[in-house]
Amino acid sequence: MLYDRLIQNPTIDPKKGSAWYIKKLKEQPDKFMMDNLDVPDRKMAQMENLRMARGESLPPTPNATPEHTAQHFDYIKANMFSLEESADQIISGHIKGEIEAIKAAVMAQQSGQPPMGPEGMPPEMPM
Known about the structure:
With about 130 residues, this protein is mainly α. It is about 55% helix and about 0% strand. It has five helices and no strands. The longest helix has 27 residues, at about 85-110.
């Protein structure tokens, strides 16, 4: 079956691929897809940015998406001259941890191994 090979390709988003396949079967994707209530998105990143800018240290967000992490980069670029050094270091450390977790997930997906979280532990599974 072609579908199982397509969703294992690291350049294809498995959620989008699944939605496409379900639509091709003339079914409603909402009947099959899980709710994404706890998926880190750009809005969550914006809230994290505000907290870190106030000096609160936050660990890397579990299961952060590239779009989530990109929001942190955008925040640093937009505020590079107004951020205090300590806040810049907090946000930069947060970004570094998220990038390492994303890279580990991609490498694990390519090798067929389960992805590991930032501390080498399996990532948290949504309930």
